[in-house]
Each structure stands twice: as structure tokens, then as C-alpha cells.
Amino acid sequence: MSDQGDTPSANAGKTVIEKLGGIRDRIDAIDNKILSLLSDRAACAEEVGEIKRGAGEENIKFYRPEREAQILRRLKGLNKGPLADERITAIFREVISSCLALEQQINVAYLGPKGTFTETAVHKHFGQGVGSSPFNQITDVFREVEAGTADYGVVPIENSTGGIVSHTLDRFVSSSLKICGEIHLMIHQNLMCKNQDMSGVTRIYSHEQSLMQCRDWLARHYPDVVKVPVASNAEAARLASEDPHSAAIGGENAAKQYALNIVSPHIQDSANNMTRFLVIGKEEIPASGNDRTSLLISTKNRAGALYKLLEPLERHHLDMTNIESRPAPDTHWGYFFFMDIDGHVSDADMQLALAELEGEAELVRVLGSYAKAIL
Description:
Strand content: 25-35%
CATH class of the domain at 292-371: Alpha Beta
Shape: globular
CATH architecture of the domain at 292-371: 2-Layer Sandwich
Structural class: alpha/beta
Number of helices: 12
Helix content: 40-55%
CATH superfamily of the domain at 292-371: ACT domain
CATH topology of the domain at 292-371: Alpha-Beta Plaits
Radius of gyration: 26 Å
Oligomer: single chain
Order of helices and strands: HHHEHEHEEHEEEHHEHEHEEEHEEHE
């Protein structure tokens, strides 16, 4: 019998195993380095906390959103792949969030209940290292932050399909809170129910905004099923979880929260369905280098009033990215204007424009200057 030795396939198998073993050894070594570096970064965060406390200052700011924005923009600029920028941002947000928790536990109030898109926005912006509490009304979120029970709040302000959230705008009229940040969240609406399919379903629950965002899809696929608007998508999921004849529209978090099956994913009419959320708090945020300023302006209802508000912005080369009007309470045909302008309130051009606006309008209030959302 001749000595055949190892067959080519056996040799090839050994080569694959050896290659994978070598790569896994490298991964283990890299993970060890990452863990060591994370420990070093956490130790730096603890040292920062000790220095701040040792300074003996009142109202010490541990959370610095402008600094966080600068870090994330810098890392995105350095990223050469293969991980996409949004994955790099998500990873480092969690690193920053965990390190911040060593300095101070941040508490965030948000429009709930649990399982809403607003809760997803909270964790996208603050990471998992913060404490969060859901509230049923936008007004309740404002009150928690005003009372100091929560450090920050997160509320929706507008959707690319459904438009402005008027309750949030109206609340700014009577509140002294500042806008401390913004969050942009891609919204993927999903049809979900207890069953594996829609057999026997006679009604679909959802928030009125979500029903609007899925109106055409629903008209094509379920024109005869009753659509019932409720307070939130999470509430819709809860109701669907209790009734096999009901379905809900909402996010993946809501489906997980209430153990529902997603029978049709991504049913929103627009592929670019995005909601913008605001972070509200009590402090003014320093410039980050790429900022937005939000204004509340009131003027008398007279010919050319709006033009006179916009003209100083054009003269000082300021880009207004959004304007909304809301009826002023306790007046006849009076209006408040909400404006978003590129730039920070500390910028020289912004200061000049604000001075001119204050001379023209009855009221000019800076709702906040804050870092633009990092996707």
C-alpha cells in the first residue's frame, strides 16, 4: 500500500482552520487592547469628575453636549472604514455615556410610554448610561425638567412627512427652558399584531402622526380595516397585545416591548421618513463649531411685518432653515414665529441681527443655541 499522506482537501481544511485561528488570536489581542484603553478613558472621566468637584463651584456641568459633538465630528472625520460613520458614532456615544455615568448619573424625561420612538431618540443621543423616565404628555416632560426632577427632557418637534408637533412649540411660549440639543431619527413604521398574519384583524391602532405617515400604504393594503388613533405607538402596541383582532403601527422597540410579531416592516410612505427631537434643559450651551439657534419672535400683525423680521437675517448672511407660526394666546390674530438659524448666538453676525430684530419685534427670545444633530 502506498503512503498517500494528507489529501488536498484535508490540507485545504487545515489551512482554513489555521487562518481562522490566527485571525481569532488577533481579534482577542485587539479586544484586550480596546478593554485596556476603555479602562484608561474611564479613569480619565473619573479624574475629570474629581477635578470639577474639587473646584467647589456651584451647578457643575458634567454633561457637555458641545464637547461631545466635537468629539464625534472629529472621529467621523478620522474614520476610514470599513465601519460606517453612523456605527462609529453609535459606538462612541455608548463609550461617552458610560464614562459620563462615572461622573454623574443623568436623568432624562421623555414622551412615553416605553417603546416609543422618543425613547429610541433618548438612547441615540445620550446612550444607555443615562436614567430615563417616560411621561404621557409633552407638558409633563417640560414640568419635570422645570422642577429639576429630570436633568433634561426629549420631545418631538417635527416629522418630515407629518409636519410640526404644535404641542411642543406652544409649550415653549410659557416655559423658560432652553433647547440644549437636537436628534434626527429615521422612522421605520411597522405593522404588528399577536398573530403571524393579519387574519381576523378588524382595527389598526396607532398615533395619528404614524397613521398619516402610512396613509397611502394602508389605503392600498387595508382600505376596509378601521384605523384608530391613540396617544402613542407604544399604547397602540399595548392595545394590540391584548386583542387578537387588533394590530398596531410602531417601531421595533414597541414590538419587542409587547411581544408582537411584525407582519409588514417599513410601511411608511416615504423612504426618508425622519423625525426631529429636541433636548430641553436649563443651561445655555457653548458653541461647538457647527450649531443651530432657535428663536421665538412676536410681532404685530401689520403689512410687511414678516419681511422686516427676515431682512436682518439676509443682511448679516444668516441662513434660516425653518420658520413656523403659531397663534399667540389671548390675542386676536396675533402670532408667534419660531425660527431656526444656522450659527451660534455668540457669533458676531448673529449678535448684530438679534439687535436689529429686538428693535423691530415686540418680543425676541433665544430658545437655545446647540450643536446640530450628528446622524
